[in-house]
Amino acid sequence: MHVVRIARLLLCAVVASPAAGQSPSASSARLDSTLRALEAKGFSGAVRVDRDGVPLIEKGYGVANRTAHIRFTPQTIVQIGSNTKDFTLVSLLQLSERSRVNINDSLSKYFPTAPADKRNITLWQLATHRAGFPLALGRDVDPLTRDQFIAAAMHHPLSFPPGTRESYSNTGYSLLAAVIEQASGTTYDEYVGHNILAPLGLTHTGLLLPHFDVRQLAHGYADDGDRGTMLDRPHAADGPYWNLRGNGGMLSTLDDMHAFYGALFGTAKLLKPATRRLSFDPDAPVALAGSDRVSSFLYERLPMLHVELIVASNDSRWPAQRVRQAIREVLGLPSTDGGPPLASGPTTPARPPSPPIAAMVTEFIGAINTADSATVRAFVAAHFTSSAGAPTLDERVKRLVAIHGNLGTLTIVSLDQADPGVVTLSITAASGDPATMKVRLNGSDPSKIDGIQMVVGG
Question: What does pTM read for this prediction?
Answer without folding.
Answer: 0.75
